[in-house]
Amino acid sequence: MSYLKIYIQYIYMSKKTSNSKEINNQPVIGILTIPLSNWLGDNITLNSKKVKSYLPAAYVRWIENSGARVVPIQYTATAPIIKSYLSQINGLVICGNISPVNYATMDKNTEIEVEVLRWMKAEFTIFEWAKKQNNNGIYFPVMGVGMGYEELIFMNLMTKYYDGISDSKSAMDFDNSEIPSDEMVKASNSYSASPFILTDTPGIFAKELTKEEIQLFSSKNICYTTPGWAMNPKGEKIKKIKDFLDINSLGRNQKLKTEYINAYSFKDYPFYGVAFHPEAVIYSWVEEMIPQTDVGVIFSNKISEIFVNECRKNTTQLSSNDILIYNYTLFSPARVLKILYPQNWETVQLRKHFTNAYFFGVVTNVQKEKILSVRK
């Protein structure tokens, strides 16, 4: 089958998104913002106000591309405010490409920045809230991309630790024997791309992809992976991990001769994780290795479509348009660099890493935000 025919199928084929008769045709999906201080420095200001977090526009556009609207969930907000936002949306994405905590190289005395702890606390609030909603019969999907893919697993694997996180902690406070260092494997030392190969437990991907698409995606380098670590399918705790999730796809790095979990889905919850960055393939023109081919774009759109269709099964309605991403200012790459690096923003080495982004923690950056009803 030709690529064009598959693309036409992708655009025009109508698929059922649920056994339920009620489908939400105006899904709204939250995206958790990313801490700035983890890697960009802790002294960033804009309009004399402290900037705490950011959100690359690529994630927003990627979700919007499949017919959903986006609400930014600021990790700096209190738990009641976060829950007030969650009670109005139909699903959530935890994203990022630089992990705030590297379990592969840490020990119990590893210090963690306060802002990163606040981010971990916020994501765990969301994780527990989402589990509770699903346990109560309210379908609420969550997808982890990049570091979100790691965190969904660790939040379920180390619930006691995440539940005890507070802003005052400065180090990991569990025994060295509890640190899941063996659960991580080097996925790549550089920016790379690899095929999407399904396992014998393909989960949602087998249901939503045609046989022709599965064959095509497994033969092309379409999964864009940034340098870093991924989950080890042969780690010491893999049996425990397999108790709560299915490994849908395995990735392989030929140079490093490593194999890693490329995509997964939880057994009891509509929670999904991908080690690669589908949003970058369509919207980030910053690396030569990004597979921005016709097949790469079709695949990345397909991942977005699959998740957004999952969120359509949640029929919660947005109470106020004031919390949508449209109320925030989108900054160009040049302006982003001028904000972050006012002295050397024109440096080529820096310019290649940045695309359009939203910044948060700035009073004048949002027209208004309302704290509305909280679902308990």
UniProtKB/TrEMBL annotation:
What is this protein's record name? folate gamma-glutamyl hydrolase
**Swiss-Prot/TrEMBL GO biological process terms:** tetrahydrofolylpolyglutamate metabolic process
Organism field = viral metagenome
GO CC annotation terms, alphabetical: extracellular region; vacuole
InterPro entries assigned to the protein according to its UniProt record, in alphabetical order: Class_I_gatase-like, Pept_C26_g-glut_hydrolase, Peptidase_C26
Alphabetically sorted, this entry's keywords are: Hydrolase, Secreted, Signal
Q: What is this enzyme's EC?
A: 3.4.19.9
Concerning PROSITE patterns, the annotation shows: PEPTIDASE_C26_GGH
Main localization is secreted
GO function term, MF aspect, one: gamma-glutamyl-peptidase activity
Cellular location of this protein? Answer: Secreted, Extracellular space
Q: Which family does it belong to?
A: Belongs to the peptidase C26 family.
